[in-house]
Design a protein that fits this description.
The protein is mostly helical. The chain has 15 helices and two strands. It has a two-stranded antiparallel sheet with strand order 1-2. The longest helix has 26 residues, at about 70-95. It is globular. Residues about 280-290 have low confidence and may be disordered.
């Protein structure tokens, strides 16, 4: 059976429910210096599931320092912009990333688990280095492998050939995609987030994994931080499926940016703690369970 074209893959993937189309609107609100709680509420209230999750988090044991909150405006005030952004990005991207698909030999939720830890690691690394925006890095980590879901949904019939090519040549999964399909998951992912009107920097992160010489210079700091974060997520074993370790790791570039093996290993405990807190203690034994 002939492989679908890249355009056909994107068209099929865009028909999946729960696409994160509200996330760019949320990013636009939070980038405004004069953004108010009412601006956030206007976006969050468009998604009933997100609104409910916001209220639940605000009334959770971790944040509930007083009387229960009953309105979105009260919940937003209690949580603050940083926590609201983390929750919203995870809710909007996570539902799409958790769609059941064939192709990959994933366990349920594997892609979302891996993406979440990558997001948390990217945010943490940016906080430590000060060379890229942590909030943008968190979103970039969540969506940087979104093209894999599209391929699993649209190209499952071609996966045996991709798998066989990996085993035959000992190449990366992405290289095998290019041979079998004529395109790869970063190309598909970049086209999807472009159609969802994500900011150019996030499109660049999705497109240039692993980092390449053709990456735009203004997005390179973000791209490199997300690549380092992907290494951390893989090393911690979060959501690693059959393709999990079959990716190109640009160690020389990371060391050039100061991300030595010692720095990345030192980041793992705080990333673990942050992911664990975000998931209410469900991150254990190297795995996140939703």
């Amino acid at each position: 059976m002939a492989a679908p074209t890249l355009t056909e893959v994107c068209e099929r993937a865009l028909r999946l429910p729960c696409s994160p189309v509200l996330l760019p609107r949320l990013i636009q609100v939070l980038q405004k210096e004069d953004a108010h709680a009412a601006d956030l509420e206007a976006v969050i209230c468009l998604d009933p599931a997100l609104a409910g999750a916001t209220l639940r988090l605000a009334n959770s044991a971790y944040f509930n320092a007083g009387a229960p909150v009953e309105t979105l405006s009260e919940a937003i005030f209690r949580l603050g912009q940083k926590e609201i952004y983390r929750l919203s990005a995870l809710s909007l991207a996570g539902r799409w990333l958790n769609q059941p698909v064939g192709g990959f030999r994933w366990e349920p939720g594997d892609l979302c688990r891996r993406s979440l830890v990558t997001a948390v690691a990217a945010e943490y690394l940016c906080e430590q280095s000060g060379r890229a925006d942590p909030r943008t890095a968190y979103t970039a980590g969540l969506v940087q492998e979104i093209g894999k879901l599209a391929l699993a949904f649209a190209c499952a019939d071609q996966f045996p050939a991709i798998r066989a090519r990996c085993e035959e040549l000992g190449c990366t999964w992405q290289e095998a995609e290019n041979v079998v399909l004529g395109y790869d998951h970063p190309e598909v992912g970049a086209e999807l987030v472009r159609r969802w009107k994500f900011p150019p920097a996030l499109v660049a992160v999705v497109m240039h994994q692993p980092p390449t010489a053709s990456a735009p210079a203004d997005a390179l700091p973000l791209i490199v931080h997300v690549h380092a974060a992907k290494y951390i997520a893989a090393s911690m074993g979060a959501g690693v499926g059959e393709d999990g370790f079959l990716f190109q790791f640009s160690s020389a570039l990371l060391e050039e940016w100061g991300f030595t093996s010692q720095v990345l290993e030192a980041a793992m405990p705080p990333v673990f703690d942050r992911a664990n807190r975000l998931l209410n203690g469900k991150f254990s034994a190297g795995e996140i369970a939703f």
